[in-house]
């Protein structure tokens, strides 16, 4: 069995264009200020949390390939470069084969709305420059071009839980020795239609945007001190298993960690939307971090930020381990656990329970 | 657990296909599609799903869906909410499921490829939000059901199984990637059986998008023809059931064919244009054949991606010609997009099922309107119906963004 280490992580969020900004916002623990955007046909604006303009524009955004791209690609690219920065110190790794998995829920909504609006007005003048950027696979294509050593790419679509599915696909590629490192990105952008749609399910939800990225590898020497300990099964919602049952099954499989460990959950302020996850973790007594309450509903980006926050907390020595709970909106529940890397024998093996399962 | 993983076996299991379902503009089901592909029937007509009066091109390959879906485990409420793409997906999945003889199960993975999911519902949401901004009727349902994972859940509920769903959206390679990923799951011992496929319905935004790029043919789709002038869009779905050979033998299942190879790569040349010399296509074909221990002379037919655009077909023709070497002169190649159009996220899956048909029934699908080969083609295009000895076939799929997928299938006799 291969051990999987986290090489680095990156984040673009309403807090700013790097992990430091994310960490500071989460440490402060206060919801970030909201902005408003106009919804066509409404007097009242919608509340969102937008990604601020970067104080220093990342150099990669000047790449010609990004000239006409939408914000989601900018977020994904910036998070990707921050996550692979750890590889830069290892010339063998940076020149190696890189896998790329980009996970999205709503994807390229800004250009999709713009292009469809143009189509409805007059298809003869709908912009051929905009249409290609509406495709789910566009961010992965651009990031692949920027990184240059990407040899394998998937774009995965799903609810937020699909981010950990992406991580598990990356782990498989690493284990099969198809790649030397694998970058997994969760990214979203937002606009009025996303903010409008969210209101149908949670009146308190505040749409936000950004990206989070994890870079994984097998090599101890590339580790930043964080090791992937477990990813639960994917507990899919179906007629045979309701969301609440799936969340409970995920929690049961993840087990109870030691009380010093951190839980990064996906709770916001929604009574109905949070019910399944709240029930699954009702007896959690350890420290808990709920990025959604501070950053907003970032869908796939939120799932990625949860994982980034977990890795960052472990790497900075604040906790010995951190669990991530992804109870997706309409697909599945998956959990994961990251721990401080132990550079001796592997501490976990296939089929072994990670924590102490609740009795 | 998805991690830690059990170690992959040193001898990965053989993977066979025991069920296949297909929905295209030629019809619904294996039999009618096999008849159409075998004769090279063409299924294009003026688009009726949305207004094309102001479009440059007005034709596509539309599916005629039944007014009522055949009985499944979906209740009236779910059936009332199912959209066009979801209906095609469920129809294809139902056919594959019944053919395989599988029964309800837990932890059975579903891997799907799509580019747009339920985009028509997304379009409806946008229209209503813009035109009737105070009207919210059905908007919540649209916001949920346009998402591909919700359509995947329809398949679980319709057929009565549960398990992880993975949605790959590698543009027009998605269907091939989905079947290939299912193959990976079985070969790495993460699953013994997997349901996989691809689906996409025609939508106004995507149609207008391809039209804006001027990649739609104003005449007719003729891949690899020197006079080709673009692609024609289609819609449809295909689903296959894959399982280990041991699993199929244990239950004495009827085997349609064996999936023996899968490769994928990324062409970083351009978002919408393949490398002019097809270098990435060449690499993925070579690597897939190398890992499968297959040589060009072993391949009896290639179902090409062959969209009918100038750039794609030239790039693919260079790659196939280079890869095949001396074998090219006698290598039969065709693109079934000449019959049913480009099915985007469904294309790779539908074309895999067409490959199964050629293996089962020993014929090659012709492009009957093909006339003059592009100079880059060193191979022969199948352009009239013909029976043939077909043991191993290769199917190519390429997508916007540069994702490539190659599948290799073998006859089960």
What does this structure look like?
The complex is a heterodimer of chains A (359) and B (413). By secondary structure, chain A is of the alpha/beta class. Chain A folds into two domains: 4-222, Peroxisomal Thiolase, Chain A, domain 1 (3-Layer(aba) Sandwich); 226-340, Peroxisomal Thiolase, Chain A, domain 1, CATH 3.40.47.10. Chain A is built from eleven helices and 14 strands. Chain A has helices spanning 19-28, 71-84, 91-94, 109-121, 138-147, 162-175, 192-198, 243-254, 275-280, 291-295, 300-315, and strands at residues 4-12, 35-37, 46-49, 98-104, 150-157, 181-188, 207-208, 210-217, 226-231, 235-236, 262-264, 288-289, 321-327, 332-340. In chain A, strands 1, 4, 5, 6, 8, 9, 10, 11, 12, 13 and 14 form an eleven-stranded mixed β-sheet that branches. In chain A, strands 2-3-7 form a three-stranded mixed β-sheet. In chain A, helix 1 (19-28) crosses helix 11 (300-315) and helix 2 runs parallel beside helix 5. Chain B folds into two domains: 15-250, 3-Layer(aba) Sandwich (Peroxisomal Thiolase, Chain A, domain 1); 261-410, Peroxisomal Thiolase, Chain A, domain 1 (3-Layer(aba) Sandwich), CATH 3.40.47. Chain B has helices spanning 30-39, 76-81, 84-100, 119-131, 139-145, 148-159, 174-187, 204-212, 245-250, 279-292, 310-324, 337-340, 347-361, and strands at residues 15-24, 27-28, 45-46, 59-60, 110-113, 165-168, 193-200, 236-244, 257-266, 301-303, 332-334, 363-364, 380-381, 386-387, 392-398, 403-410. In chain B, the strands form three sheets. In chain B, strands 1, 2, 5, 6, 7, 8, 9, 10, 11, 13, 15 and 16 form a twelve-stranded mixed β-sheet that branches. A two-stranded antiparallel sheet of chain B has the order 3-4. The mean pLDDT of chain B is 96. At the A-B interface, helix 4, helix 5, strand 5, helix 6 and helix 7 of A face helix 4, helix 5, helix 6, strand 6 and helix 7 of B.
């Amino acid at each position: 069995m291969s051990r999987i280490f986290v090489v680095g992580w990156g984040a673009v969020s309403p807090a700013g264009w790097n992990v430091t900004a994310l960490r500071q916002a989460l440490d402060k623990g206060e919801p970030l200020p909201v902005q408003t955007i106009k919804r066509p046909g409404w007097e009242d604006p919608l509340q969102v949390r937008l990604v601020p303009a970067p104080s220093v524009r990342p150099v990669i955004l000047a790449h010609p390939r990004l000239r006409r791209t939408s914000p989601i690609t900018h977020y994904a690219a910036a998070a990707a470069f921050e996550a692979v920065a750890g590889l830069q110190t290892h010339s063998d790794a940076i020149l190696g084969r890189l896998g790329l998995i980009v996970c999205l829920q709503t994807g390229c909504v800004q250009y999709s709305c713009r292009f469809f609006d143009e189509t409805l007005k007059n298809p003869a003048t709908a912009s051929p420059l905009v249409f290609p950027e509406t495709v789910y696979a566009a961010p992965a294509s651009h990031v692949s071009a920027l990184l240059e050593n990407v040899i394998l790419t998937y774009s995965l679509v799903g609810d937020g839980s699909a981010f950990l599915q992406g991580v598990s696909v990356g782990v498989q590629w690493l284990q099969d020795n198809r790649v030397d490192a694998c970058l997994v990105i969760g990214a979203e952008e937002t606009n009025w239609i996303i903010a409008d749609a969210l209101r149908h399910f949670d009146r308190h939800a505040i749409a936000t945007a950004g990206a989070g990225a994890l870079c994984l590898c097998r090599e101890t020497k590339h580790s930043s001190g964080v090791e992937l300990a477990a990813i639960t099964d994917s507990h899919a919602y179906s007629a045979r298993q309701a969301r609440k049952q799936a969340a409970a099954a995920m929690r049961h499989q993840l087990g109870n960690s030691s009380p010093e460990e951190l839980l990064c959950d996906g709770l916001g302020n929604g009574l109905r939307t949070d019910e399944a996850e709240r029930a699954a973790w009702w007896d959690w007594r350890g420290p808990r971090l709920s990025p959604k309450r501070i950053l907003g509903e970032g869908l796939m980006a939120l799932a990625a930020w949860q994982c980034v926050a977990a890795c960052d907390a472990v790497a900075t020595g604040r906790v010995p381990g951190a669990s991530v709970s992804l109870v997706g909106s309409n697909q599945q529940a998956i959990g994961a656990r990251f721990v401080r890397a132990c550079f001796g024998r592997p501490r976990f093996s296939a089929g072994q329970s990670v924590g102490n399962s609740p009795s | 657990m998805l991690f830690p993983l059990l170690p992959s076996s040193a001898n990965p299991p053989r993977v066979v296909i025991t069920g296949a379902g297909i929905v295209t503009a030629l019809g619904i089901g294996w039999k009618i599609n096999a008849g159409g592909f075998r004769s090279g029937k063409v299924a294009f007509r003026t688009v009726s799903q949305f207004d094309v009066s102001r479009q440059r091109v007005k034709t596509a390959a539309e599916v005629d869906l039944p007014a009522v879906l055949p009985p499944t485990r979906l209740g009236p409420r779910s059936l009332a909410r199912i959209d066009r793409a979801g209906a095609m997906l469920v129809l294809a999945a139902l056919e594959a499921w019944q053919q395989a003889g599988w029964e309800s199960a837990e932890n059975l993975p579903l891997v799907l490829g799509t580019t747009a999911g339920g985009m028509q519902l997304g379009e409806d949401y946008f229209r209503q939000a813009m035109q009737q901004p105070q009207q919210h009727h059905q908007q919540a349902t649209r916001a949920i059901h346009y998402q591909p994972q919700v359509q995947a859940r329809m398949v679980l509920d319709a057929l009565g199984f549960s398990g992880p769903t993975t949605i790959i959206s590698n543009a027009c390679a998605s269907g091939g990637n989905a079947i290939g990923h299912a193959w990976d799951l079985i070969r790495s011992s993460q699953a013994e059986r997997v349901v996989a496929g691809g689906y996409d319905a025609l939508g106004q935004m995507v149609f207008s998008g391809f039209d804006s790029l001027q990649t739609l043919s104003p005449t007719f789709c003729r891949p690899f023809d020197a006079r080709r002038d673009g692609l024609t869009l289609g819609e449809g779905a295909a689903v296959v059931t894959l399982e280990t050979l041991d699993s199929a033998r244990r239950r004495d299942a009827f085997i349609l064919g064996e999936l023996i190879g899968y490769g994928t790569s990324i062409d970083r040349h351009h978002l919408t244009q393949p490398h002019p010399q097809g270098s990435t296509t060449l690499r993925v074909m070579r690597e897939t054949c190398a890992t499968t221990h297959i040589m060009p002379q072993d391949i009896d037919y290639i179902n090409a991606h062959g969209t009918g655009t100038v750039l794609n077909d030239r790039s693919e023709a260079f790659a196939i010609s280079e890869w095949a070497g001396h074998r090219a002169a006698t290598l039969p190649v065709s693109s079934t997009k000449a019959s049913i159009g480009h099915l985007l996220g469904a294309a790779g899956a539908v074309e895999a099922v067409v490959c199964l048909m050629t293996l089962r029934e020993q014929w090659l699908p012709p492009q009957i309107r093909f006339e003059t080969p592009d100079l880059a083609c060193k191979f022969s295009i199948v352009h009239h119906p013909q029976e043939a000895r077909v043991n191993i076939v290769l199917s190519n799929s390429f997508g916007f963004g540069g994702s490539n997928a190659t599948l290799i299938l073998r006859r089960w006799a």
